[in-house]
Amino acid sequence: MTQKMIKIGFSYFPFKDFLLEHQLDLWFPAMQKWNASHVIFTGNFDIAITEDVFRKAQEFGLEPIVHYNAVLPSARKFNDAAFILDLYRKWGVTHVIFGDQPNTKHGWLLPGQQDETLVDQFLDRFIPLANHVLKIGLTPIMAPLMPGGEFWDCAFMELALDGLKQRKMTELLDDLVLSSNGFTFNKPLSWGEGGPERWPGSKPYYTPDGQQNSLGFHNFEWVQAISQRAIGKKLPVIILDAGNPGPDFNFEQGKIFEDTLRKILQACQYVDYPDENRENGLPTLNESVLACNFRLETLKKIFGEPFSIEVLDQIFSQTQSKINQSKTLTGKEKHFDHYLLLPSYASGVSDSVLNKVRPLIKKFKPTVGFSLEEALNAVKVSVFPDSHVFTDEQINRLRNAGCEVEILPQSGIEIATLSHD
């Protein structure tokens, strides 16, 4: 029986210097070595990250994700944002995170405002963007909240999900992924485990003796419990900035932080053993956690200078055992590495199409077939285009299933050129 594991990934440095090729050539191989399945880039609605950055990530088996961590744009800037998102889909991005800590003052549109209209203002900007990425075949991820925060995180999340329900965003709620900041606030990794059902006495800004709250690594359970209460189902979640001790970090606690990272990594590997994890001081994760992510900027800040790949190697290489790379962030098992999806007609298979793709088959040796359902089980799918056979909706099904989709050119010469690249 295959052991269940949680995917790990890294939020890449947000600085432009780190997008230069020599930096990518340093960090992407390291992430691959650490068994990361994906890398998260900081997005900007005014300027796009270049295609070569995403392609380079994919060369090292890293699924590219974009996180827009600024205030979301207004409706008058929607078309500009949608244009960039369309490019990102073509360049292999699979998931997009919209917003960052909208329950804190830095995420508010009007300074000093603190009422339920804050949630409505966030949704007014979030919904058009989330619906657009859903339409083009990407997965929208709700902004991570600051545990606690000036607008209590649990209250904000409940109002946001209830707002989506009231606005009848059924399709969006079917595919939405939540996110949670994996801050520890210098508390044990088990803090808050079980969510509000286990700690019913916890109230906003007040935690009675003997109770625990959402201000800990298990914040993800509180977020998911709220989704169960608000919309009747537990939405999947990704954990961001795992192990960050929060704003009150003491730099003398570096060794404790290193131990925390190791424990989180071990918990990602041993999902099937919650009781043993508790005994060893590890958090308890479950399969509804799609991924656990570590923020390189946080690691750099805490470990200080000199900061290098070698510093992290001692944690991530030594702690991690090999994780099966044939599973995407969607969590669905993939049975084929590469599937060539060809159109089939009533008259049979086209000899012309077969001749065109022959060089690709010879070089890459993909599984060749004519079934969309089969192709859904592949890590990568190369599609010979025919809009009458493979509609945009079907192509988006592949992307939503976590497949890396390559649309081949119609020309046999161009396909042969691809095969020689």
Please supply descriptive tags for the structure shown above.
alpha/beta; 16 helices; 4-stranded parallel beta sheet; 12 strands; 421 residues; 8-stranded parallel beta sheet
Report on the structure:
This protein is α/β, with parallel strands linked by helices. The protein contains 16 helices and twelve strands. It has helices at 21-33, 51-59, 78-90, 117-135, 153-166, 170-175, 195-198, 219-231, 254-269, 274-279, 296-303, 309-319, 351-364, 372-375, 392-400, 412-420; strands spanning 7-11, 38-42, 63-68, 95-98, 139-142, 178-181, 237-240, 289-295, 336-341, 367-369, 378-383, 404-407. Strands 5-4-3-2-1-8-7-6 form an eight-stranded parallel β-sheet. Helix 5 (153-166) packs parallel to helix 8. The longest helix is centred in the first third of the chain and has 19 residues, at 117-135. It is globular, with a radius of gyration of 22 Å.
Average pLDDT level: 88
Roughly what percent helix?
25-40%
Distance between the termini: 39 Å
Structural class: alpha/beta
Biggest sheet statistics: 8 strands, parallel
